[in-house]
């Protein structure tokens, strides 16, 4: 809300400032490389905790996962006696850049940003902007593979998840649920996204480890519940009773598949997905769904702010962050009926955000 | 039916025949039921869009209107978010809201002279906005036995909502054939000036066409909610262009004045058979999008060669 009121009033100025900043970024690049770092580097760590501004930015709050991310940010902010500015950009890259420009045009000395870039290509301008303005930045999920976090001293860390690992985890859970042998079908995500590719590669690893599980068919349902419903119906008429399990690259598609199974009167098929959306957790509690994987949204919302806060207040120096903690895979959790209760109303733990504990969930550097 | 109207039905029979030969799974009774069930929602959306296309306008409001109606109906029938249990009244309210949004498109077109392309795009955004506000971060799942039953319970081998779609096509055909609204919709697309010169006030009929289209989208949103068991903001995603595709494949011209509900229904079946058949014969998912596009373009080209000079987007 804080943002919208400012947004309407200052939109015009922001556009102008944005252009100036972009121009600044172009010339700033060389300076940064030559000098010892951008804007606020000299006084890094000099911020009084009360002066720190915390910003969390995601696509939209109508997505339960991203809403829980911002809630986690609020929880961390409360822990240190501050409030988080909640920003959403409706999956619109231009709007995301506009919001960032506006933020960076203000007081950036003690600004901490925990950002979900819309896509890989949206990350570089955000990074350059933060570096030049001296704001502390943590990004999650998306960055181009060749953009190196260690080349910047205000881009503190990039966190993502190993899609191959999650695809394999639910593949193994599915194999176990169908007793180690039988036919399964796979519902892939949007085929040209990294997430869809990695998760499917994970399924292939799982199939290699479970030779009696046969992949009867793989189709895309574009991460969509409605498309998954239609595709699953078609696959069920095609393969009939041979289908013992359905592997879906996200929970929305898994939920669509569950509807298709219900409409076909089948209750003997195991279904797995990824993301741990609330409806999937309910389905796992009920026993209609077998497994999902959680990245722990509230933790993601808190951890990015915590890293920035610790560096801004001087409790942690950028140089002291190990190379392998600058761009890393975070731990994800396989959820099945026995542990689903722990995830239904996720809470963040203060310990997770303590400055000495920031990187405890690392599963290793992004290779 | 004249010779040049025969193109799309022939294409449908040919495509169906090819898949039936290629795949034993395709030619089963259960798969034919599946195709008809899968065509239901698209058929209802296409009913609405056909009238708009007949008048020579375009309508991109389906995703927003369907989203708003889906969330509305999910919150009004028995659900997990509140204590409402309005049943059919809830369905009626959702359809009325959708009709109101459609009316808004029509008013923007005739009163404010906004081109239909922009007006309906704007109304789609408004619909998505309403849906997002009502959504409020928690997915409404429906528990209403009637609405859930539409997707699950069968009558003569087809899901109830498939029969609802059949009824919509029939209703649309009756309106097109026997009502003044239907006849004027054709005439507006064919020669709006002539109609106006002969003393007909065109504007109210245009608004009525968009309102009726909105009501059809609203019902489609309700059907999607019944199928998915939940009200989704994205309930109508992609339906705008698939409905336009289906209508054009069936022989409804984007310039207006030609085609109609039955043409569009054939187009819907053609598109649905194509989607289903490509999966049944085992075309790789990486190829499907492209192959489907090529077949659609080829089908349209074959069907409209006699009238290709007219098949361009205008107005």
UniProtKB/TrEMBL annotation, chain B:
Membrane listed as a keyword: yes
Transmembrane parts of this sequence: 6-23, 35-54, 60-79, 86-111, 117-136, 157-175, 207-230, 236-254, 261-279, 285-305
Signal peptide limits: none
Main location: membrane
CDD domains linked to this entry: TM_PBP1_transp_AraH_like
Places the protein is found: Cell membrane
Membrane topology: Multi-pass membrane protein
Entries under Pfam families matching the protein: BPD_transp_2 (PF02653)
Keywords: Cell membrane, Membrane, Transmembrane, Transmembrane helix
Protein name stated in the entry: ABC transporter permease
Organism: Promicromonospora kroppenstedtii
């Amino acid at each position: 809300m804080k943002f919208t009121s400012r947004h309407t009033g200052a939109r015009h100025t922001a556009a102008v400032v944005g252009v100036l900043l972009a121009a600044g970024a172009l010339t700033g690049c060389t300076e940064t490389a030559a000098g010892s770092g951008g804007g606020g580097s000299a006084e890094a760590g000099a911020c009084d905790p009360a002066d720190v501004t915390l910003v969390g930015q995601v696509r939209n709050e109508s997505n339960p996962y991203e809403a829980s991310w911002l809630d986690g940010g609020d929880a961390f902010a409360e822990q240190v006696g501050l409030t988080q500015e909640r920003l959403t950009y409706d999956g619109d890259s231009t709007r995301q850049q506009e919001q960032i420009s506006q933020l960076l045009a203000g007081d950036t000395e003690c600004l901490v940003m925990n950002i979900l870039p819309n896509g890989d290509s949206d990350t570089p301008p955000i990074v350059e902007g933060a570096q030049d303005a001296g704001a502390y930045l943590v990004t999650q999920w998306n960055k181009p593979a060749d953009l190196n976090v260690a080349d910047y001293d205000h881009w503190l860390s990039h966190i993502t998840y190993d899609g191959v690992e999650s695809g394999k985890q639910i593949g193994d859970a599915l194999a176990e649920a169908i007793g180690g042998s039988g036919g399964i079908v796979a519902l892939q995500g949007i085929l040209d996204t990294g997430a869809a590719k990695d998760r499917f590669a994970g399924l292939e690893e799982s199939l290699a480890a479970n030779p009696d599980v046969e992949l009867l068919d793989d189709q895309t349902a574009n991460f969509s519940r409605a498309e998954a419903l239609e595709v699953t119906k078609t696959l069920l008429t095609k393969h009939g009773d041979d289908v013992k399990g359905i592997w879906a690259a996200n929970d929305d598609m898994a939920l669509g598949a569950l509807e298709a199974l219900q409409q076909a009167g089948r209750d003997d098929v195991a279904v797995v997905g990824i993301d741990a959306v609330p409806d999937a957790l309910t389905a796992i509690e009920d026993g209609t769904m077998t497994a999902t994987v959680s990245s722990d949204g509230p933790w993601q919302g808190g951890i990015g702010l915590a890293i920035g806060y610790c560096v801004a207040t001087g409790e942690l120096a950028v140089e002291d962050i190990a190379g392998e903690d600058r761009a890393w895979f975070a731990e994800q959790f396989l959820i099945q009926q026995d542990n689903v209760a722990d995830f239904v109303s996720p809470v963040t733990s203060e310990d997770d955000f303590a400055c000495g504990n920031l990187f405890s969930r690392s599963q290793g550097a992004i290779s | 039916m004249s010779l040049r109207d025969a193109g799309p039905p022939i294409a449908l029979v040919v495509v169906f025949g090819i898949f039936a030969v290629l795949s034993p799974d395709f030619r089963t009774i259960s798969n034919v039921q599946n195709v008809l069930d899968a065509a239901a929602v698209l058929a209802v959306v296409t009913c609405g869009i056909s009238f708009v296309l007949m008048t020579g306008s375009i309508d991109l409001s389906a995703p927003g209107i369907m989203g708003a109606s889906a969330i509305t109906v999910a919150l009004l029938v028995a659900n997990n978010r509140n204590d409402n249990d309005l049943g059919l009244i809830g369905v009626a309210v959702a359809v009325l809201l959708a009709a109101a949004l459609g009316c808004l498109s029509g008013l923007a077109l005739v009163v404010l002279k906004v081109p239909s392309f922009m007006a309906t795009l704007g109304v789609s955004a408004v619909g998505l906005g309403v849906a997002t506000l009502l959504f409020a971060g928690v997915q409404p799942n429906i528990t209403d036995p009637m609405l859930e039953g539409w997707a699950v319970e069968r009558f003569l081998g087809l899901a109830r909502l498939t029969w609802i779609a059949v009824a919509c096509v029939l209703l649309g055909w009756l309106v097109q054939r026997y009502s003044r609204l239907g006849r004027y919709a054709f005439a507006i697309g064919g020669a709006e000036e002539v109609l106006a010169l002969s003393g007909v006030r065109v504007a109210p009929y245009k608004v009525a066409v968009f309102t009726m289209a909105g009501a059809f989208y609203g019902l489609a949103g309700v059907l999607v909610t019944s199928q998915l068991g939940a009200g989704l903001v994205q309930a109508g995603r992609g339906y705008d262009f698939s409905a336009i595709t289906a209508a054009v494949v069936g022989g409804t011209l984007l310039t207006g004045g030609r085609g109609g509900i039955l043409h569009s229904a054939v187009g819907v079946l053609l598109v649905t058979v194509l989607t289903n058949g490509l999966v049944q014969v085992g075309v790789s998912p990486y190829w499907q999008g492209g192959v489907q596009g090529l077949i659609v373009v080829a089908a349209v080209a074959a069907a409209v060669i006699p009238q290709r000079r007219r098949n361009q987007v205008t107005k």
